[in-house]
Write a structure and sequence with these properties.
With about 400 residues, the protein is of the alpha/beta class. The protein is built from 14 helices and 14 strands. It starts with 13 loop residues before the first helix and ends with a helix. The chain binds pyridoxal-5'-phosphate.
Length: about 400
């Protein structure tokens, strides 16, 4: 049925308004806060200056002078855009330079940059696996892994979060089921809980069962391992993980994702990775800024030391106040409150008092596990963090959370 002139106008999307009304009734409807100015440790959102505990800008590189300068120089030299997809005319010498730097940084044969970490995961998983294959995935893996797995049409089996015994059970059950190939895939650091995958056990099991291994190090890139090389470096597993994904959008401070691994893997993705074949490559400014960020990580890891100092201080502070911070071991510290609506109200009260920690509810986290998520950065001062702890204490008590 369509609306006819003069007739009753039909709204084919009316169901969306109903859904939205439902979100509002549940207290979980959100529109994003708007950042005015730079993504800093203190920043102005919705017209209010707050201590910013919501960005992934772990090292403060989004505004680093070396990155700004590299981006500006690249625009002057190469222009604003790349003008094509990678496989047609959109591979620039800058892209190749970044990839060579990343391969060296990650100690792999080769690397390939995607438009984002999301497309790197989804594009890689869907390219290398097919309907005859099995994907064994941690229960809390990132949405981009899940989407890639679905696109691949492979059978997907989920193992309990960070549970090697559960993984072993799935792998044993799959034996003799006639799958062509098996991929075992996990986040290195889990984005909502900040815990770290038991990578040595996961890798050992995957190898024992002849499976391909893939680690998504989005939240470990620039955060864990020597100079921020990620969890594979942290656990000294170089050469034992077939596919490493990293992001350039979080600690690296710019935008993009990459896959690091064997030359065959990279050359295959250049033939079959759909985001590489069908979506335009990064503009020069993005790529040049990423190269400048890798320079910084290699030359001066002191920012990473600052990040971890701040992490220890703030996490301990939240725990001492009696908040439930879950199993976090990284700069991501959730403050788990339970119901979605409560998490949103908590976040709003914190914001009104000058602290921005985003409320996160279902479907991003399981029902009953809603939280505000905090991420400290190297750019926070002790005073920023002390202030944030005071606000958490005051609002937490006022709302009966502690
Ligand atoms: C953020 C994130 C991604 C996506 O990275 P982008 O570069 O932002 O697209 C992928 N995996 C995990 C685990 C993430 O946290």
């Amino acid at each position: 049925m369509t609306g006819s002139p003069g007739g009753t106008k039909m709204d084919a999307l009316a169901f969306l308004a109903d859904e939205l009304a439902q979100f509002k009734a549940e207290g979980v409807f959100r529109l994003p806060r708007v950042l005015e100015g730079e993504q800093g440790a203190r920043a102005v959102f919705d017209g209010r200056e707050v201590v910013n505990l919501s960005s992934n800008n772990y090292l403060g590189l989004t505004t680093h002078p070396k990155l700004r300068e590299a981006a500006i120089r690249a625009i002057e030299k190469y222009g604003a855009g790349s003008g094509a997809v990678r496989t047609i005319a959109g591979t620039m010498s800058l892209h190749r330079e970044l990839e060579e730097r990343l391969a060296r940084f990650k100690k792999t044969e080769a690397a390939l940059v995607f438009q984002s970490g999301f497309t790197a995961n989804a594009g890689t998983v869907s390219a290398i696996l097919g309907k005859e294959d099995l994907i064994v995935s941690d229960q809390l893996n990132h949405a981009s892994i899940i989407d890639g797995a679905r696109l691949s049409k492979a059978t997907i089996k989920v193992y309990p979060h960070c549970d090697p015994a559960g993984l072993q059970k799935v792998l044993e059950e799959a034996q003799g089921q006639g799958y062509r190939r098996t991929l075992v895939i996990t986040d290195g650091v889990f984005s909502m809980d900040g815990d770290v995958a038991p990578l040595p056990e996961v890798v050992r099991l995957a190898r024992e069962f002849g499976a391909i291994t893939m680690v998504d190090d989005a939240h470990a890139s620039g955060v864990m391992g020597r100079n921020g090389r990620g969890t594979v470096d942290h656990f000294d597993l170089h050469g034992q993980v077939d596919i490493q994904v990293g992001t350039l959008s979080k600690a690296v401070g710019v935008l993009g994702g990459y896959v690091a691994g064997s030359r065959a893997l990279i050359e295959y993705l250049l033939q079959r990775g759909r985001p590489i074949l069908f979506s335009t490559s990064h503009p020069p400014a993005v790529t040049a800024a990423c190269i400048a960020a890798i320079d910084l990580l290699e030359q001066d890891p002191s920012l990473i030391d600052r990040l971890w100092e701040n992490t220890r201080f703030f996490k301990q502070g939240l725990r001492d106040l009696g908040f439930d911070t879950g199993p976090s071991e990284t700069p991501i510290t959730p403050v788990i409150v339970g119901e979605g609506a409560l998490a949103m109200r908590f976040s709003d009260r914190l914001f009104a008092e000058g602290v921005f920690a985003q409320g996160i509810a279902y479907p991003t986290v399981p029902k009953g596990k809603a939280r505000v998520r905090t991420i400290v950065t190297a750019g926070h001062t002790k005073e920023d963090l002390q202030f944030a702890l005071e606000v958490f204490a005051r609002v937490g008590r006022e709302m009966g959370i502690i």
